[in-house]
From TrEMBL:
<dbReference type="GO" id="GO:0009317">
    <property type="term" value="C:acetyl-CoA carboxylase complex"/>
</dbReference>
<dbReference type="InterPro" id="IPR051047">
    <property type="entry name" value="AccD/PCCB"/>
</dbReference>
<keyword id="KW-0175">Coiled coil</keyword>
<dbReference type="InterPro" id="IPR029045">
    <property type="entry name" value="ClpP/crotonase-like_dom_sf"/>
</dbReference>
<dbReference type="InterPro" id="IPR011762">
    <property type="entry name" value="COA_CT_N"/>
</dbReference>
<dbReference type="InterPro" id="IPR011763">
    <property type="entry name" value="COA_CT_C"/>
</dbReference>
<dbReference type="GO" id="GO:0003989">
    <property type="term" value="F:acetyl-CoA carboxylase activity"/>
</dbReference>
<dbReference type="InterPro" id="IPR034733">
    <property type="entry name" value="AcCoA_carboxyl_beta"/>
</dbReference>
<dbReference type="Pfam" id="PF01039">
    <property type="entry name" value="Carboxyl_trans"/>
</dbReference>
<feature type="coiled-coil region">
    <location>
        <begin position="442"/>
        <end position="469"/>
    </location>
</feature>
<protein>
    <recommendedName>
        <fullName>Propionyl-CoA carboxylase beta chain</fullName>
    </recommendedName>
</protein>
<dbReference type="GO" id="GO:0015977">
    <property type="term" value="P:carbon fixation"/>
</dbReference>
<dbReference type="GO" id="GO:0004658">
    <property type="term" value="F:propionyl-CoA carboxylase activity"/>
</dbReference>
<feature type="domain" description="CoA carboxyltransferase C-terminal">
    <location>
        <begin position="266"/>
        <end position="505"/>
    </location>
</feature>
<comment type="similarity">
    <text>Belongs to the AccD/PCCB family.</text>
</comment>
<feature type="domain" description="CoA carboxyltransferase N-terminal">
    <location>
        <begin position="7"/>
        <end position="263"/>
    </location>
</feature>
Amino acid sequence: MSVDTVNLERIGKLRETKASMRLGGGEKRLDSQRKKGKLTVWERIEYFFDAGTFEEVGGFIDHRSTNFGLEKSRVAGDGVVTGFGRVNGMLVYIAAQDFTVMGGSLGEMHGRKIANIMDVAIANGAPMVMLNDSGGARIQEGIGALCGYGEIFFRNTKASGVIPQISVIMGPCAGGAVYSPGITDFVAMVQDSSYMFITGPEVIKTVTGENVTKDTLGGGDIHMEKSGVATYVGEDDETTLDWVKVLLSYLPANNDNAPARVPSKVPQLDVAELDSFVPSNPNKGYDIGGVIDRLVDSGSFFELQENFAKNISIGFARMDGISVGVVANNPKNLAGCLDVDASDKAARFVRFCDAFNIPLLTLVDVPGFLPGTDQEYSGIIRHGAKLLYAYSEATVPKLTVIMRKSYGGAYICMCSKHLGADMVVAWPGSEIAVMGPKGAVNIIFRKDIMEAEDQAERAKELESEYTDKFANPQLAASMGYVDNVIEPNQTRSTVINYLKSNLGKRQITPRRKHGNIPL
Ligand code: HXC
C-alpha cells in the first residue's frame, strides 16, 4: 500500500497536540506540583491503572468563559482528566483534577466533564473514583461553576448504592467542593498535602476571630480522628492510591454483583487461642483486632476509619475467600460502649455492605450505650437509632457472634436475632441481660439492700445471684435467640459454614419509595 503523507502529517500533528495537552498548566507548574511532594495528574493516573489500560474521555474539552480575561487561559481538558481503565482487571472510571490548570478550579465545562463520566460509570455499573486537587469553584465563572458542583452532587446521590464511589483528596478541597466527597462511600486523604474544610482559616479569622491553620482545621489527622470524614490517610500519593486499589478488591462493581471471591488463606494465628484470648473477667479490656485476625482469612482484615470512634472497629475481611463486612465492639476503648460516633460509623458501613451485597459479620462484646449528658445532648437517641435501622433494613446475610457482654439496647442493636440476624452464636461465657449486675441489683433490690445489716455484703450476694442467672447464654439459647453455643475455637469454621449456607438468601421487602432513616 502506498504511504499517504497527508494522513501521516495529520497523525504527527495530533501526536504533538496530545503531548502538549499532557503538560496541563505547563512545565513550571508541574515542577511546582512535584516540589510539594505531589504527583502530577498524569503520574497519578499512570500509577493507579493497570499499565496501558487507561482511555481518556473528553480530553479536548475546554471552557468557554470570557469573564475577567479567562479566554487567555484556555487549556485543553479544562483542568480535569476523565476516563476509564482497569485496576487489577476491574473496570473503574475516574475524574482527576489537575491543579496546574487554574488551580484545578471547577468551572462549567470542568464540572460537565465530571458529570459526564459519572453518568457513564453509572450506566456501565462500574466504580467511580474522583481525585480531588482543586481551589474550588472557578471564581471567574460564577454561576457556571456553581452549576458544575450541583450537577456532581446530584449524580453522587443518584449513584449512591448503585456503584461504589471513592474520593481521594490529594490537595485542596474547600468550600462546597467538600460535599461531593461527603456523599461518596469512602474518602482517602494524603497526609500533609491535602485538606478539607467548608470555610478556610482566613474566613474563620474574619468571622469568629479564631486563629487556626489549614492542617489543624481540616488536615488528614483531623478528619481521621475527630470529624470521621476520612476513611483513611496515606503518607503520600502512592500509598494512598495503593490503599484505594486494595479497597476496590473487596467490592463488587455495582449493586447487582457480588465481590470477586479469591483463594482462601487460613489465618496464620491459631484460632484455638480464642479460647483464652478474651478475658473471662468482664471488666478487663482487650483489642478486638486480635480476635478478628484469628477468625478471618490470613491478613485480610482491611480496617476503615481506624482512628475514629475506636470503641467500634469496622472493615472488610475475607472468610474462605468471600468478602465480608466486619463490625465489632472494641473493649480496648470505652469498654466497647456504643456512643454517637460509633453508632454513625457502624451504621453507614452496614448500609454500604447491604447496598453492595457484602455479608455482615458482627462480633459483640458491649456493655451498653455510653451514659452521660454529653451523649444525650449530642443525640445518642437519634444516632443509636441509625444503627438499629441499618441492621434492621439490611437483607444481606447477617452473622453474629456474641463473645462476652451483650447488654440492653446495645444487645438488640448489635445485629441480634430480633433485627433479622440469620445466625447468632454465643461463646459459653457470654452474658445477655438488660444491664450489668451492679446497675441491675441497685434497681431491682434497692429496698432489700437498704434493709440489710451489711449492705455491701448483701449487694455482692445479689450481684452474684444475678450473674449466675444471666452470665451465660443458656436462657437466650433456650428461647431460640441464640442458634448455638459454641467453643470460641470453632468460630471460624461455624461462621464459614453459615456464610456459605446463606449466600443464596432472598428476602422480599414491602415496596416503598425509601425509608426515613433517623439522621
Ligand atoms: C480560579 C483559582 C482558584 C479558583 C486557585 N486558582 N483557586 N482560579 N478560581 N477558585 C488559581 C490561582 O489564581 C492561581 O493562578 C493558581 O490557581 C494556583 O493558585 P495559588 O493560589 O497560586 O496556589 P496555592 O498558593 O497553592 O494556593 C492554593 C489555594 C488558593 C489555597 C487553593 O489558590 C486559594 O485559596 N484559592 C481559592 C480557594 C477558594 O476560596 N475557592 C472557592 C471556595 S468556595 P495563577 O494564574 O496565578 O497561577 C467554593 C464554592 C463551591 O468552592 C460551592 C459549591 C456548592
